[in-house]
Write a structure and sequence with these properties.
It contains 14 helices and eight strands. By secondary structure, the chain is an alpha/beta fold. The structure holds guanosine-5'-diphosphate and magnesium ion.
């Protein structure tokens, strides 16, 4: 999940003191591994907090390579419920990796305190994965999330369904056809999206021929031209639109906190009291200026 969504808290709840701290090779990014309490045959890794799967920071590269190369049998995606849109951005990318995913919708205590709520069941149905509400801070739901992850572990992950506008989906389909056979079924959509985004790491890894590279660039350039935008903004917008559709009708947003100014406004602009208050204030100002203070000034 993202930074500060409760990953380490949840990891600590799961593993207790069965932890091993190290580093990812070549980068100064902490790596924590541990077995789930009472299940010595399990291995859980606390990955760095990231906001996207792009290869721009060492945290992003570490996390992405971990999922692609170390073959985790399942992923617990920890989502901060108080900041759900931004957190689900990463989720849309994690779901593309074709692994079994369980979402721990964390910080639901804080969400409820803000007066917000979300239909967890519908969220899971729309995303196509299990969602468990957790309060990692108190250990609530943590076992359930781990049990579900263990149950799903190793199962075939969902091959992610189309979630973008038709023109982008057809570009992805076209791109998928260019990919070599060696790209596994569950990773074909993800790889095609990355190639569409001109991700050089991915392009290098799947060793496209020069001819295929030219064709891929043609597809990307075509989309950019017809949308009159750069591919990264296009895909980012598509992801946020998809998230908006996912959350439509199932998210009750937090009640906006009323500031003192809001509270005053509510009284002085009240339909019934507004005018009398206005007259009273004007009368007060007038009264002060012709008697008391006014008289003093004149004298
Ligand atoms: P990480 O950056 O994802 O590893 O996040 P941490 O586990 O370090 O947690 C960030 C902060 O959120 C800490 O202060 C935790 O105590 C707090 N936190 C974690 N889980 C919850 C939760 O379920 N509810 C609340 N209210 N706070 C939480
Ligand atoms: Mg942490």
């Amino acid at each position: 999940g993202n930074q500060n969504c409760g990953k380490t808290t949840l990891f600590n709840q799961l593993t207790g003191s069965n932890q091993h701290v190290g580093n990812f090779p070549g980068v100064t990014v902490d790596r924590k591994d541990g077995a789930i309490k009472g299940h010595p045959d399990t291995l859980v890794t606390d990955l760095p907090g990231i906001y996207s799967m792009s290869p721009y920071s060492s945290e992003e590269i570490v996390t992405r390579n971990f999922v692609l190369n170390e073959h985790p049998r399942g992923i617990i995606n920890i989502v901060d419920a108080t900041n759900i849109e931004r957190n689900l951005y990463l989720t849309t990318q994690i779901l593309e990796l074709g692994k079994p995913v369980v979402i721990a919708l964390n910080m639901v205590d804080a969400m409820k305190k803000n007066g917000a709520s979300i239909d967890t069941k519908k969220l899971g149905e729309r995303l196509g994965c299990k969602v468990v509400e957790t309060v990692a801070l108190h250990g609530t739901g943590v076992k359930e999330a781990a049990n579900l992850a263990a149950k799903e572990a190793g199962a075939a992950g969902n091959i992610p369904a189309a979630c973008f506008e038709a023109d982008i989906e057809s570009a992805i389909t076209e791109m998928t056809k260019l990919l070599p056979e060696s790209v596994k079924a569950e990773l074909r959509r993800w790889t095609a999206i990355k190639v569409l985004e001109r991700d050089t790491n991915v392009i290098a890894k799947i060793s496209l021929t020069e001819e295929m590279k030219a064709k891929a660039e043609e597809i990307t350039a075509g989309v950019e031209k017809s949308r009159d935008d750069d591919i990264e903004s296009i895909i980012t917008n598509e992801r946020y639109n998809y998230i908006a559709r996912i959350l439509d009708g199932i998210l009750v947003r937090p009640k906006a906190k009323m500031t003192i100014s809001d509270k005053i406004d509510r009284i002085v602009t009240n339909r019934i009291l507004g005018l009398p208050i206005f007259l009273l204030v004007m009368w007060g100002v007038y009264y002060l200026s012709i008697s008391t203070v006014g008289t003093m000034g004149t004298d």
